[in-house]
User: What shape does this take?
Amino acid sequence: LVDSAHSRNMAVILDWVANHTAWDNPWISNTSWYSQDGSGNIIIPPGTNWQDVADLDFDNADMRLAMIDAMKYWILTANIDGFRCDAADMVPFEFWQQAIDSLNRLPARKLIFLAEGGRADHFTAGFQLNFSWDFYGGLKNVWSNGYAASSLFTIHSNEYLGVPAGAEKLRFTTNHDESAWDATPYTLFNGADGALAASVVTSYLGGVPLIYSSQEVGRSTTVPFFSNSPINWNSHPEMLQAYKSIFSFYNASNALRKGSLTTFPNSNVVCFRRNYQAEEVYVIVNTRNYAFNYILPAEVANATWKNAFDNTDITLANAIVLNAYEYLVIRK
Assistant: This one.
């Protein structure tokens, strides 16, 4: 699997569950490696109802070294490229720093560390990425609760206040927890058009975009991960093609991936510019389920642009009528 991914210029990261183990894990015989109650019984993670797992004790130095050794095994034996660290907020900062420092000392490796969490100290510990929960919540508020589209610019800025240069927030319209317990993007964002519009904002405004299997074919029902529920990969082919276009341009655009950001606040439309050297991209997204007459920024109005997805010319006046959830991505 890893070799096949690498041949396609893809990295493979392993989901690493550091906080706990199953009850039948061989480690369970080392009772001192686990958190215990006053009677010496191993306990589940405090504050949860996770009866299927046993909580690890990170005060135990031997357990920590054994875990780091196991992480090294997957890098050296399976040639993986890093880790998506589950429930990272539940694991002490000191362990993450110890583990990442140790793994980064392996020769000739460029490793990826993604924290499934939101703590600012993840970046201090060495993670390059953590989850953008606030932006996801803000996106739902704009689409479903009538919040101003411009509120997303505020959330974006606030999320990056504690992020060091070179690190990023992971942006998403769903992930495995949300599609299982909340709803899928197709449902949350009012159908295919709303889901695609939300993905354009999420993927292009900043951070690193996440795609979770099933959203690209518009699954409407939740996606359980404790039972088998096959995805129909043939549904909504028009959505799949749209996602391909969205990410094909993203991959080809330095402006979207690392350009400077200029925002044009509006209550209903998300509009921003991304610049990198000579490349200039404007993103205009109607966040409402109705048509809206949008007065264009002076920098965009009364000019001819290229549609970023099909390279056709678009001549704009000083305003544009955007249909429900319509998005426009243009470039010079």
Observations:
- The first strand starts at residue 14 and ends at 16.
